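ESCALATION

Customer reports they have been waiting on this structure for their group meeting. Please prioritize. Original submission:
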Amino acid sequence: MRLSGNTILITGGASGIGLGLATRLMSENRVILCGRNREKLTRAVHDYPQLEYIACDLSHPEERVQLARTVVQKYPELNILINNAGIQRRVPLTTNEEWDHTHEELAINLEAPIHLTRLLTAHLSLSPAAAVINVSSGLAFVPMAMMPIYCASKAALHSYTLSLRMALEKDGIEVIEIIPPAVNTDLGGKGLHDFGVPLAEFCDAAILGLREGRKEIAYGSSLRSSLASRQELDGIFEAMNRG
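Update from on-call: job pushed to the front of the queue and completed.
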């Protein structure tokens, strides 16, 4: 994937990994952030005036449709979509919670990347340098039982990305998967990932992976998980969930 001269839409771009990638790409590309927290979006654009934003709640399909229309109309040169938005909740599977909470997590983590990619594929195919980048997780390979919906949705996103890469090959659209380990962001709640890899370290590694043309970009523990055998994965799972 080329790293300059692009017009890039990044979902979940107001903070964390999304914003970290945006700030590394903005000097040589036009970068549009997408998120549902307008306050965070305006703060990001205030701090980094080169960035632009569109507010959108990706949990609602009608807003995804409107986002695609707006982007194509306002930024016809769009050639890269980064599906980064995600929700991570710690919820026991035995909890009989309202389905809306579970569905929102599934909608943002899985439905939105599938739907938004489908909405924009025809437009992206017009560019000779188009790419779709899906941000999954090391937990796609080894789930943590305390956050079952997140892990299941990321496992599904990994599977979908493999199929998408095959499907879009004929259209000349590159499909890349970024597979983060635990990164020190506010994902899931403030302070829950303080133990994780520093955000700057991970984002630098992700950009290096893009520069090197890798189709799967994992780092640290997620690299080990993504390459592990089934026996190794079982061992990692036991250590993570019973250790």
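Sent to customer with the following note: The chain has a mean pLDDT of 95.
Escalation resolved.
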